[in-house]
Amino acid sequence: MLRNTAFKYVFPIGMLISIFLDGSIFSIFGASLSFHAVPNLSFLWIFLTMFFINDDEIHYEWWAMLAGIIIDLFYMGFLGVYTFIFPLAIYFSRWIYKHLPLNIISAFLIYFIDITMIYSLSLLANRLESLTNMSWSFYLVYVLGPTLAINLVFLIVLYIPLQSLFDKLK
What we know:
Elements: H1 5-32, H2 41-52, H3 60-76, H4 82-97, H5 104-128, H6 136-169
Helix pairs in contact: 1-2, 2-3, 2-4, 2-6, 3-4, 4-5, 5-6
Subcellular location: Cell membrane
InterPro entries: Cell_shape_determining_MreD (IPR007227)
Organism: Apilactobacillus xinyiensis
């Protein structure tokens, strides 16, 4: 798959677009709503690429780490938890992906677990470092719930178009 020239260009360009859309969508939804719905299109892009293009030559964990570094440095200004949590979630996804059939239901379930893991580990790390004092109940209701909702909607909306894009690139 790495020999496919179209994929070599489409994947990094899609990654950059998704990283910038994360911030844009968050600024639109984050400022206007009383809860924090955090879109994660960059992780979704890597996740669906891994889901549709099952190629062991592509090191999705490294791409996830690069996305985490860019997100941490660009949006937070320092190297943070996404640098380590994104590759961990992709590694988990690849492991569980091998045991489930390739369909939208399994993608939905794995992505649900991934988003829950990413934001729960992020909160745990931030609490350990005393960067936040957010309670778990507040987190579940005002952060994780809306974040899961917006990201699962994005997964459902983008599943078919990205599947057809990656089928054309094969």
